[in-house]
Amino acid sequence: MTLSSLTKSEAAIRSDLLEVQRYDIAVDMTGLLEGERFASVSTIAFTCSDPGATTFVDVAMDVRRATLNGEEVDVSQAADGRLPLPPLAADNVLVVEADTTNTGRGEGILRTVDPTDKLVYVWTSLEPDEARRVWACFDQPDLKAPHRFVVTAPSSWVVTSNGAPESVTDAETQDARVWTFPDTPRLSTYVVVVNAGPFHEVRRRHDGYDLGFYCRQSLVPVLERDLDEMVTLTRQGLAFFGEKFGYPFPQERYDQVFVPNLGGAMENWGCVTYGDGQLFRTPPTHAQRAVRAEFIFHEMAHMWFGDLVTMQWWDDLWLNEAFASWAANWGMAGASEFTEQWATFLAVSKRTAYEMDMSPARHPIRSDVPDVSAAMSNFDAITYVKGQSVLHQLVAFIGEDAFVEGLRDYFSRYAFTNTRLDDLMDCYSRSSGRDLSAWTKAWLDEAGTDVISLVDDELVVQTTDDQEPRPHRLDIAVFDTTGDDLVPVGRSSHEVGGRRTPVDLPAGDLRLVNAGDFTFAAVKPDPVSLTRMLERVQQLEDPLDRALVAATAGQLLLLGDVAPRDVSAALNRALSSETSPALIEPFLSQALQVADRWAPASESPDLLRGLADAAVRLVGLPDARQAALRTLAASASTDAHWTALEAAAEDATDLDLAWRMAVRRSELGDYDEDRVARLLESDPDPDAGMRRLAVLAANPSVEAKEEVWRAFFVDYAVPASRETLVLGSTFWRPGQAELLAPFAHRYLEELHTLKGGLLNQGLTIRAMYPLGAGDARFLAAAEAAADDPSLMAYARNQLRSNSFVLGRILQARQL
């Protein structure tokens, strides 16, 4: 079915014309137990400000019958996801009966069969305009209304929606139960939900909230293992945000549902869904726990920013996601055990935004969005990571107290309504007493990354495309390195305006610009500071300062100002004495990328060997052991490395390390089919087949690569999760460039035929770009493909961004 994409002008016309009073939606899921049929009857009560006018309702299903005010509607006119309506009355009731069998592609709805026990699970995920795929509605964010769901599902299933069910009764005519849910608050169509299946359910009551956690039956031991931690994080987040926002979450029920094959998470009101890759099959490392905590806090922040108060149109989608991402880090640092989360954010996430914002894929944070499909093309690192970095800069610019006061004003003024960016910025202007119009334009309407240098006693700002510099509030830390110890001699704050800003600093030969990481800018250190920071990073006391050095080194790789070998050496020095769990794994990961992906083929083996040596030294530290062993398994190069791994694998209570060792052996040409079969047979993970695919992906043979390729692009058998990205990087081994060259060009062809929902397509596009393995010929082809209008806009943007990084990798190998 070809679907029309709602335009901004169409949405504005319909919003002026209609006001939706309520949705009453009856859902029949009984056809999904053994088949693919999903059916709904949507009853919409709405008013029309211009009786006699016409409009359309969104419904991307097979429409069986429709009535408007009791009169039949000609459903043969339904096309492109729209059903035209006859002239409207002042008060209207529209009833649309529809069904669909499009339940296997993740487009609004996904039916999944667990491979271990054959149990069926179903989820819905409706952003941005996919509610129309499961029931008729006016599918745009500014037509909010209460939703009431009555769901008929197989009797063995549990159903979750946006609140607690009012009743669950046996169906009269079949082996099913009827779940009746109360009215939701006034919500946009994209944040309501119905999930169903034989879920395992756990409930906890704390602090006046009824907290629910759900997973498929095959993952019960994993959920139970980490349940206490997730309960604690949920309690901490609800308490922190409720107090800081001056508006406690106004519903007793708060559910979190872990579902198969969802690439990310979705902020449904009171019923968040996560891809169950967040239920780590192996006891998670600190970094994995931090990622899951960030998901929990991010989706929870959306309850206020996105659900309670919703942007009027998708041109402010960035603000939804940027705010939730910023609030997640803020909340974790302020309310959870992850007190050094800002250092982790700098070391792990910020690089992705710099890569895209320095590339030809850069775009303003805020841009015109003519239709819904254009909104999703910018669902990227600039939206999430640069956006939250800019909000972090705003906090520094006006002060946290004013920022929080502005938020409280915003939520109290606009609860359960729709807003634009100007509404939020007006609240901040009132709370801070500052005119923020110039700040807003400079940060949100201009693309690209400012590059800041400290030249003599001036901060010098270089801009993209010769635009005016943005205002920056930043700190500079100065250290004396003349002795054996690193001695801090001053830390000062500066508000940077224009191309040159004089600064008064104490004497010192290591000067860290953007200490504390308050702004979003690349930093070019002076030559002496660069040498000192790379040589003595391990002596910096503040984790944020150590993260800043690692992040600056990554920026300088992109700018072509430092060689991979020098960055690798600095990271190994940092790892020699790193004690912060917030940084150990990020530094190991960055060091592995530099040695494996950025270094020239002549140097990569030695850099990997050096990293493996560093990992061996970390294995004895409890907080570092698991992450160090994983890095060692990816870089093992000597008999001593393998001896250390085999000893650890014998003591391990799970198979994770054994799988990782099998991947490395396979990469080195030692693929043992019997070993893989034994691992697969003994692994209880329902997705263990993906671990076998990873072993194949690493193997330098055409046959192995072809099998992985089919799983991605023919069978669509790779579950969507963060592990999808890992599988992609395992496939594209830089040392196998000649073998992989034909696959690289096939990747460009596959982009024309991708299937599934946006989140799943986006994961495949990013995972299977041959970063590190592509050559100059592929790079030229990818850059040309980025201008192909027949490709979806999201794919073109990802091609531009990744091609920029690949080009810089190829250049860095020449340094």
TrEMBL record:
The alphabetical list of record keywords is: Aminopeptidase, Hydrolase, Metal-binding, Metalloprotease, Protease, Zinc
Q: Which residues form the Aminopeptidase N-like N-terminal domain?
A: 118-191
Cross-referenced InterPro entries, in alphabetical order?
A: Aminopeptidase_N-like_N (IPR045357), Aminopeptidase_N-like_N_sf (IPR042097), ERAP1-like_C_dom (IPR024571), Pept_M1_aminopeptidase (IPR012778), Peptidase_M1 (IPR001930), Peptidase_M1_aminopeptidases (IPR050344), Peptidase_M1_dom (IPR014782), Peptidase_M4/M1_CTD_sf (IPR027268)
Q: Peptidase M1 membrane alanine aminopeptidase domain: which residues? A: 234-443
**Enzyme Commission number(s) from the entry:** 3.4.11.2
Q: Name one GO molecular function term.
A: metalloaminopeptidase activity
Q: May I have one GO cellular component term?
A: membrane
Swiss-Prot/TrEMBL GO biological process terms: peptide catabolic process; proteolysis
Catalytic reaction(s) noted: Release of an N-terminal amino acid, Xaa-|-Yaa- from a peptide, amide or arylamide. Xaa is preferably Ala, but may be most amino acids including Pro (slow action). When a terminal hydrophobic residue is followed by a prolyl residue, the two may be released as an intact Xaa-Pro dipeptide
Cofactor names from the entry are: Zn(2+)
- A Pfam family of the record is Peptidase_M1_N
Q: Which residues form the ERAP1-like C-terminal domain?
A: 512-787
- Leading EC class: hydrolase
What family classification does the UniProt entry report for this protein? Belongs to the peptidase M1 family.
Q: What NCBIfam families does the database record attribute to this sequence?
A: pepN_strep_liv (TIGR02412)
**Which protein, by its recorded name, is this?**
Aminopeptidase N
Q: Which species is the source of this protein?
A: Nocardioides ganghwensis
Query: What taxonomic classification does the UniProt entry list for its organism?
Result: Bacteria, Bacillati, Actinomycetota, Actinomycetes, Propionibacteriales
Recorded name of the encoding gene: pepN
